[in-house]
TrEMBL record:
Catalytic site: 290, 294, 560
Protein name as annotated: S53 family peptidase
Keywords assigned by UniProt, alphabetized: Calcium, Hydrolase, Metal-binding, Protease, Serine protease, Signal, Zymogen
Essential cofactor(s): Ca(2+)
Stretches assigned to the Peptidase S53 domain: 217-641
Gene3D superfamilies: Peptidase S8/S53 domain
SUPFAM superfamilies reported in the protein's UniProt record: Protease propeptides/inhibitors, Subtilisin-like
Leader sequence segment: 1-26
PROSITE patterns reported for this sequence: SEDOLISIN
UniProt xrefs under InterPro entries: Peptidase_S8/S53_dom, Peptidase_S8/S53_dom_sf, S53_propep, Sedolisin_dom, Tripeptidyl-peptidase_I
Organism: Dyella lutea
Amino acid sequence: MRSTLHRTTLAATLALFFAGASLASAADAPQATTTSAADASQTVNVTLMLHLRDEHGLANYIQQTVTPGNPNFQRFLSTAEFARRYGASDAEIARVQHYLASQGLRGNVMANRVTLQVSGTLAQFSAAFGTPIHSYRLRANGRLYHRPTGDVVMPAGLVGQVDAIVGLDNESSFLSHRLSSPHLPQAAPKLASLNAIGANRAKTADSNPTASGQPGEYTVGDVANFYNINPLYQRGITGKGSTVAIVTLANFDPADAEAYWSAIGLTTKPHRIEQIHVDGGGPINGGSGETALDVEQAGGLAPDADILVYDAPNTNASFVNALAQAVVDNRADAISTSWGAPEIYNFAALNVDGARVNDTRDVGTLRAFHTLLMEAAAQGQSVFAAAGDSGAYDTVRGLGHGTGPGEFSAPLTVDSPASDPYITAAGGTTTPFSFAFGNGPVASVSQESVWGWDYLQTYFDTNFGQGVVDLFSVGGGGGVSSYWRKPFYQYFTRGIRRTEGHQSLDYNDPTAGPTTLLKLPSHFAGRNLPDISLNADPETGYLVYSSTDGGATAGQGGTSFVAPQLNGITALLRQSSGHRIGLWNPQVYFLQAVFGYGRYSPFNSVNGGDNWFYQGAPHYTPGAGIGTLDVSNLDAFMRFRW
């Protein structure tokens, strides 16, 4: 798995070429100016999440569906059954609809009876929820958006009926977790060169024929080689009869995925991609490459699975609506998303420029995702999310880090929705390889390690001097949630951590000086993430084909790749076992606790590297979770252990 990648240039700027949407979140408040009251006549869509009838009972039922020997083991619910057991009653829905109608608003209840999509003007929503809505303009790029100026007041008619209100703002809060190598790459491979990739492939008998064997140019075939997927293919397990879903915030051209599979020599089921455009669909933009790679990876690992692509605009409400549609449709056996934002952006303190420190009441998006993810788990849908690409410091990618005027601090933080306990958080590793930049010496990563670019930082500091490049804190996302408590499946896992002390997000205002925007809880027993990791370092990364990015590009990585890879692997497990897999987390944590690591274990520990804070270890670590997979062994347990 080693090769030497000689860089002919030290990359004049060594800028990080992040692929994805620009960040505009509540944490931008110090960098935004109020323009005026928003256009009161503007029509917007807002999503209300109704109160689950029995959330505690639902949590118990989910646990039972993945507990061997329980009468409800693998007895997953249909959407109608979920609605009947846990959705709002007719009377509750009628009360909510009555209040909305009194404000001139119309709501459509989805089939799960917990998601209510409401349409109206900003003036109507402002009156209904007791807060003016103003327009803001970002100083950095001039982008205009609107949001409430104060607390959202839950009307008496909705108290006890509504858990979350999402969409009173149209801030684009989510980034795709895709990165490029931190150097100006040599000429990126064209599609024609992909057709000749076989010349460089390893010729061992058990090697996947679509693999390249070249770090930075890996394909789904290399993933199959790394994580022992090939024995499933040899048994005819290709995802036949399975369906995967991609939830994304950008549209794409399905021909890109077809071109990628064809170019690497992979035979796939024809006409298997179906696009579902939610809230008018996502744009064709810089994020389209994210959608392309998600489909290429999930569909490449499961070449006979059907693929549903739910794309939506990059707003809180539309992200929630896209996930809601994928869950309520209940057609997909597994769902993945490679978009996210720092969990702490959902906290109310960030919406008021630090005036209310430690106020975490405004967590509507977190609660909305949580309800939908619980429904997915009860329906047997496995859901995966990228854990982020900013190492243990999730705000750095969007806000930077430092102590100077106009700069934000860098607290230990995690990404959402990956931090939710009912989703499997996909982390990142670096696979073994050798490298050299400019006239520097050849260096190597000798074992699969937690992905963190501090190994490159050390290389540059040592060979080219301090300050030449700043790569902090690029790496696989991971850490401890400041909101979600430690879930039951992590109670007895060695290596689980609590939040660190003295963590806060601070902004150094150029005129007013340092201001604490949010103090994070110290030593909180929160949900740890990631859960499972696979190769994600762009230096040992992948080929992607996206027409919006100019065709085929190499040196692509990020935990964006791992989430759809786990999605595709689930399609294989679903075909092999004959049933949906359900929520991965309780099952994989149990298996790791009982069987540990070794020749017959489904897992490989990740003992080296770090994500700038959490180090690799021969047990669970917030750098890489349980570790990486031996998919063939995992399949054997899923088929035979019950």
